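In response to the reviewer comment on reproducibility (Comment 2.3), we provide here a single inverse folding case reported in full, input and output, so that an independent group could reproduce the run without further information from us. The structure tokens appear first.
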């Protein structure tokens, strides 16, 4: 597994996480989920998907979100990403309580502070890789030249320098997901939310894309919450949260 550091210690015991512990005295979480509750109603039936889910994500921290299908991982990511409202509980992005924000400000917050990566890339098919990374920046008002410069820099860093003019259909699965990663980071968000980002890739490609994603997270100070069914990848993150009975529990995955 390429992503593992040479140390045999589990990730949470490595020096890397020591830095995060020290930071906690001064740093504020990029994302705080506080007692999030969400119930879906299907006819007479109430499904209590989230039942008091809470966690803090510190800058530079990559956190795995695991749990069986139907546990509520996607629901939690949508709520954290301000795409959906909880029934109760609070979402703080960069110390701002997002429940109080008017719609327009919520949307701005989502576009500028949050990057999404989905299992299926969801790139715009009619646009090149470069344009897919440029467009979210233009939406926030960045000028075209600096947006293209930023897109080139990100795509080059992900090994896609000679693919920038390709459309999504002309890219491999791994290249599509790398482009989606570049797009998610384009506006320098505080938070990356990823829903099984390598779930559609073959194991070798999945490992390589994952390593690149981890490098970007650790070098940029963004916080990431990454839903995955891959326990090897989960173990390589700083913490693993298991969603069970609607709550988040920190677990250790044995080597
Ligand atoms: N819009 C919705 N309406 C009704 N039920 C939903 C809706 N979205 C999700 N659910 C239900 O909530 C539960 C959690 O779904 P989801 O968050 O997609 O879980 P996961 O991503 O962990 O597989 C499932 O039982 C699902 O059927
Ligand atoms: Mg899901």
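Designed residues, in position order:
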């Amino acid at each position: 597994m390429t992503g593992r550091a040479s140390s045999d210690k589990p990730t949470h015991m490595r020096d890397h996480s020591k830095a995060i512990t020290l930071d906690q005295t001064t740093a504020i979480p990029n994302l705080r989920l506080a007692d999030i509750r969400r119930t879906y109603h299907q006819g007479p039936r109430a499904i209590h998907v989230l039942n008091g889910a809470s966690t803090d994500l510190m800058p530079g921290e990559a956190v795995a979100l695991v749990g069986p299908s139907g546990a509520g991982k996607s629901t939690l990511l949508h709520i954290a990403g301000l795409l959906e409202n909880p029934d109760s509980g609070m979402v703080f992005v960069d110390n701002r309580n997002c429940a109080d924000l008017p719609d327009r400000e919520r949307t701005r917050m989502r576009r500028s502070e949050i990057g999404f990566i989905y299992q299926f890339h969801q790139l715009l098919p009619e646009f090149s890789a470069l344009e897919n990374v440029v467009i979210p920046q233009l939406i926030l008002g960045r000028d075209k030249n600096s947006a293209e410069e930023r897109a080139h820099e990100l795509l080059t860093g992900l090994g896609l320098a000679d693919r920038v003019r390709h459309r999504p259909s002309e890219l491999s699965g791994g290249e599509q997901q790398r482009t989606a990663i570049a797009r998610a980071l384009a506006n320098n968000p505080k938070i990356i939310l990823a829903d099984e980002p390598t779930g559609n890739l073959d194991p070798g490609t999945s490992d390589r894309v994952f390593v690149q994603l981890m490098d970007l997270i650790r070098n940029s100070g963004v916080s990431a919450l990454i839903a995955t069914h891959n326990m090897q990848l989960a173990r390589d993150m700083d913490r693993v949260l298991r969603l069970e009975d609607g709550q988040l529990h920190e677990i250790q995955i044995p080597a």
